[in-house]
User: What shape does this take?
Amino acid sequence: MYMITEQKPLDEVLRQMEREQAIYVLGCGTCPAACHTGGKPEVQDMAERLSQAGKTVSGWMVAPTACDDSTGQALRREAAVLGQADCVLVMACGYGVQTVVRHTDMPVYPALNTLFLGREGAPREFVELCLQCGSCLLGLTAGVCPITACAKSLVNGPCGGYRDGKCEVHPQRDCAWSLIYRRLEALGQKEKLRSIPYLKDHSKFCHPRHVTLG
Assistant: This one.
């Protein structure tokens, strides 16, 4: 599973840093590397584009996992180079950006947009599987998540707009509830459709969430 990201347009990146001249670029060797949005080649390309735009790149690195607190140790090792920069540009997901914020008093800016948590299908193609809603229905829906797979996140069966097993919102996609029905039928578990709650507890989906386990 990867945190899926996309690069922001360069003009948006530059607008964020219009007051800063010297920039330190930090990438991530995990999810952004897999997405080709913040690994070593992308960090080097960003450094080149920033230079062409008139900025000074004081240094760069690719943290093994930017959202891990070991990034703080890496930043401390880079203190001398960071001291020459006005800000840090982070080519990682929102978690990575916020991790860097916790470990520096410098301005920190995102170079990427964080899209969703997903898995890789075909090369460079990623699919969202879970919205982390906090109230899982997979045991009743044959492992197909209606909150994620249904464009309307319906928990009470297909909407009136689906046709021939296809989604009303995205006609090229299978209707999530059609998939659920067919899989339950194949498993001999169609009776589970009667057990699915019509009302979903959305309180666990309120933000920001915090939980103490154990």
